[in-house]
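Minutes, project huddle
Topic: does the predicted pose make sense with phosphoric acid mono(formamide)ester bound?
PN asked that the exact inputs be recorded in the minutes so nobody has to dig through chat later. Recorded below.
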Amino acid sequence: MKTYTNVKDLGDLQTAVKEALEIKKNRYAYKHLGENKTLLMVFFNSSLRTRLSTQKAGMNLGMNTMVLDINQGAWKLETERGVIMDGDKSEHILEAIPVMGSYCDIIGVRAFAQFENKEDDYQEKILNQFIKYSGKPVFSMEAATGHPLQAFADLITIEEYKKTARPKVVMTWAPHPKALPQAVPNSFADFMNEADVDFVITHPEGYELDPKFVRGARVEYNQDKALEGADFVYAKNWAAYADPNYGKILSKDMSWTVTTQKMALTNNAYFMHCLPVRRNMIVSDDVIESPQSIVIPEAANREISAQTVLKRMLESL
Ligand code: CP
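Predicted holo structure (tokens), as shared on screen:
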């Protein structure tokens, strides 16, 4: 595997989940693979889970791991070509990327959508420059339009907890005080559309996601109706995608918060969220603390999704 940016990079999804569950049974079985190999993780944005789980995954595989926080101690990077660099940006990304590539064997990149230019965000300008200029396998640790390590961990978790062969999975928008990118819901939709689940998306009007990710999924604007009979409730906020409101908050309607009353509409569903989560905005205390909340095992599976991807990348070096 040379890149990991979306579900297609995994090939057959069932095989990938099976491999992940095997890795989970013995996560140190492939320690030899990463001997004398270095993982570099580059963060343009904050992280708790991705940073720790991916570093742990690399260590499980015997890799040396390095972390670079671009905004803390590195030179400020210019990303546009042709700019006269007489401002506060000291280094161009076109030198920085191959230099980073020269110090490692695999690179992970976190670079969120900036909501300044939809085209730049949806062309994955930063991530694709790493793929083009680093000379090394590159994987997304959440880029502008996708968070495939998260979605892979989500699918592994659903596989572990499902009680029926084809569970109903409902992804619901929920309110949030800040404008958040569409990366997590895009990737979740991308994976659920490939998985053997009955997938439903619910959100207020105006929050339609990119059709490229929604594909044939059912979109239901009535949250209560969508939640009926759900086996899994996946809550997430995102800002508007459609023009002219790209990146804007259109609603903070608290009636979309996932509460005990909302969960009562479901088939005793499990509650999922990628974390970090704003309590009593996205989900009530009662729900996230209930036995049906699987947010902690979901986060723990981030180590397994990252390790599966890193293992495949090491095998292809
Ligand atoms: N879910 C997730 O990616 O968490 P972090 O932003 O803390 O890495």
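Observations noted during the meeting:
- The pocket of phosphoric acid mono(formamide)ester is lined by residues 47-50, 142, 150, 274-276 (CB under 6 Å).
- The domain at 3-146+302-316 is CATH 3.40.50.1370 (Rossmann fold).
No decisions taken; revisit at the next huddle.
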